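Closing statement on the NAP sub-project.
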Amino acid sequence: MARQRPGRAKSIGLGILGLGVVGGGVYRALSQKAAVLAERAGGPLTVEAILVRDLKKGRAVQPPPRLLTTDPKDVLGNPRVDVVVELLGGEQPALEYIQEALRSGRHVVTANKDVLAKHGAQLLALGRERDVGLQFEASVGGGIPIIGSLLHDLLANNLTAVYGIINGTTNYILTKMAREGLDFAPALKQAQDLGYAEADPSHDIQGTDAAYKLAILATLAFHTQVRPEDVYREGIERLASRDFRYAQELGYAIKLLAIAKAEEGAIQARVHPVFLPQDYPLAKVDGVFNAVQVEGDLVGPLLFQGQGAGALPTASAVVADIIHAAKDIRQGGPATPLPLLNDSRPVRPMAEVRTRYYLRLSVSDQPGVLAQIAQVLGEQQISIASVIQKEVYEEAQTAELVIMTHKAREDAFQEALRRLALLSVVSEVGNYVRVEG
Ligand SMILES: NC(=O)c1ccc[n+]([C@@H]2O[C@H](COP(=O)([O-])OP(=O)(O)OC[C@H]3O[C@@H](n4cnc5c(N)ncnc54)[C@H](OP(=O)(O)O)[C@@H]3O)[C@@H](O)[C@H]2O)c1
């Protein structure tokens, strides 16, 4: 095919669904960088219609009013639209609109982790069937180019692990707790006051958002369908300022880590707080930043780090996807085949996962206590790596013990917790955190 000269090539029509934080950033980037983007896409990118909910809403960007519509047909049934850019968020009607766009032979770019995590396999199959692209770089890690790396650049590898700090809200809260000695509730309040956490922060702090993103990463890394419900999940609400104090004393940082590992015949997929050695690169990713570490048999460890949210970082990923879609259209179909999910390794149940643990207990300050605790742990095949007696509360005649274990099975550890809580010498099982690295 003869090379088309920029400016002479047919314009690629874009239909944008949503003009919020990300939609606004995408529109701004497309407008302000039109010339350079046209050069890179091999021809102009023209916004033909933008779907919103409320035409009268004040917005950070001001497209010509004729482009705005509240009728999805003006985008999905518009003959000038070649690429549908879905930036609505949430499962419905986004899913329905993406399906309609793919069925009508339009390429789709989306930033929607909920739809991708729950319906990605089905949508990829639909795209393959209709020979159109489905691009979703912004669905995980905002501006970090992790999806494209998994889909293209790392294809020569058998990937063995993916570790991610992929929720900025929780990383901001944990960083506050670590640096300022705050407990969870005041750290969350600060994050909400600064707009880093939503009024209802449950999706973030309970680890659901990270679990959706991990489902997408694990699916691509291991070529097998990992659903959100396959991902074991715990949030950050149980963490207390003293856990951070003890972690620091022991040489660890606490992070909400999304972990996907390939093992013999199975994979692990879990999101929960972890103790990470302070000298690990991921332990130093602070504030709202995101990072993903990938390990491959050829490439070894790789670390991607950057802004996981925000209008312009996310627009960086969305607009790059639009350029790829435009090039695919000019070349007459998806240039790169959509990923095949043809590996059948199951996700290992959390009960069978083996990790090390940090355990904080309040116990009676009297002789023989440690022997009783060691016995309960020993009966569950859990061996103790170290025990440190922290605070002693003389009035209550209790002391706080911090126990670090060697690797143990999760179900055995949970049973030990249940039995420890029944011991008369244990006044409280304060907290436990799994240890990685
Ligand atoms: N925000 C980030 O930093 C970020 C980062 C990575 C990925 N993402 C993903 O990007 C997507 C968009 O997020 P966002 O933060 O831009 O959301 P947002 O600010 O809430 O914007 C959503 C936009 O969609 C429109 N909309 C929503 N439902 C609609 C409906 N049923 N019909 C018509 N219009 C509808 C809204 O219209 P009105 O303006 O009229 O209300 C609004 O313009 C989500 O999937 C999100 O997970 C966001």
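Confidence is low (pLDDT under 50) at residues 1-7. With this model delivered, the sub-project is considered complete and its resources will be redirected to Aim 3.
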